[in-house]
Specification:
The protein has eleven helices and nine strands. With about 325 residues, it is of the alpha/beta class. The protein has a nine-stranded mixed β-sheet, sandwiched between helices. Helix 10 links the parallel strand 8 and strand 9. Helix 2 packs across helix 4, helix 4 packs across helix 5 and helix 6 packs across helix 7. It is globular and about 60 Å long.
Length: about 325
């Protein structure tokens, strides 16, 4: 896998000017206010009685997300832990859902409560009932609702992800002042979005090889993954104005969320990543407003970044900020 983008010294200086929508804050305030108002009740937790695990307790969760619609999640608690726990809200990569709870045991092994959030329409347990409105629709989730930011898929998914933080902070096993958001690829982009949309509710953000950042650059450079869906859509439908498409996507760009995020943050990037070009990651990192931020650079990392080495970095980094279990 060759280097896919600028040399590292240029990446460290890469600070593109990407204008944000004038009504960006109003758009998201209206979105989240409506999502919270639509909830008919609190999150529901059903213990998984047949979980064949001795060190954790597992709960099948439904919490109210976008438009009050139920979103599935797993809550995984270290068995026998005392006192309110630090928590990690884990968002999933593109085209994946929460999967099985046995896939998500790292954080509980380190003493954290873990909420693993299903991605509406992508996983098996959370449908996305909103119809697509895009004329001449082609592709995956990236192009759903490109005609209007109010209809775009990521408005619904990002609202779900903020509501997940609302839900976990209300659980009696969780310390609401020690909730971190974490994810890789799409999950990294969602963690970044939540850090910007709920700055007072997020204690830390772990943003690995994030997708959903600097859309135009991603569409122009990425050789694999979701960004090419945008290029394919515009290539097939030449009469559609690209500026209108990117104007919609601008409401969901991690560069704008980064400017509003203040929690300590640890990013990561793979310099041989063909899915999320390194320049898109550095663009978001440089815009991140929190003073306590760092980035781990994996020189020979592809879209998997640093793999388990990055997870070890995350655990040590959180411990260094007082966000580990006692």
């Amino acid at each position: 896998m060759p280097l896919t983008d600028l040399p590292l010294e240029e990446l460290r200086a890469y600070r593109p000017e990407v204008a944000e929508p004038a009504d960006f804050d109003a758009f998201w305030s209206k979105t989240l206010t409506a999502a919270r108002a639509a909830a008919s009740g609190p999150a529901e937790y059903r213990r998984v009685e047949d979980a064949p695990l001795s060190t954790v307790e597992v709960f099948d969760v439904r919490f109210p997300g976008w438009d009050g619609q139920p979103v599935a999640a797993w809550l995984i608690l270290p068995r026998g832990a005392d006192g309110p726990l630090p928590a990690v809200v884990n968002y999933i990569g593109y085209s994946g859902g929460r999967g099985l709870y046995i896939e998500h045991l790292l954080w509980s092994a380190a003493g954290y409560a873990t909420l693993v959030v299903d991605s509406r329409g992508q996983g098996h347990d959370t449908p996305d009932p909103d119809p697509d409105t895009t004329p001449q629709y082609v592709g995956g989730f990236m192009t759903r609702g490109l005609d209007d930011p109010a209809h775009h898929y990521y408005r619904r998914l990002m609202a779900d992800c903020v509501r997940a933080v609302d839900a976990v902070r209300e659980h009696p096993a969780v310390d609401p002042d020690r909730v971190a958001v974490v994810g890789g690829s799409q999950g990294g982009g969602l963690a970044l979005a939540v850090a910007g949309l709920a700055p007072g509710k997020v204690a830390a953000a772990l943003v690995d090889v994030p997708f959903l950042c600097h859309f135009r650059r991603g569409a122009e450079l990425a050789a694999a993954g979701p960004y090419p869906e945008i290029a394919h859509y515009l290539g097939v439908h030449q009469r559609i104005d690209p500026e209108a498409v990117f104007a919609t996507l601008n409401y969901f760009d991690g560069l704008h969320f980064a400017r509003r995020a203040t929690a300590p943050a640890l990013f990561s990037v793979g310099l041989m990543d063909p899915v999320c070009p390194p320049s898109t990651v550095f663009a978001a990192y440089h815009r991140y407003a929190g003073e306590d931020k760092d980035i781990r650079v994996w020189h020979f990392g592809d879209h998997a970044g640093g793999r388990s080495s990055q997870q070890r970095e995350q655990l040590l980094w959180l411990r260094g900020r007082g966000l580990a279990s006692a």
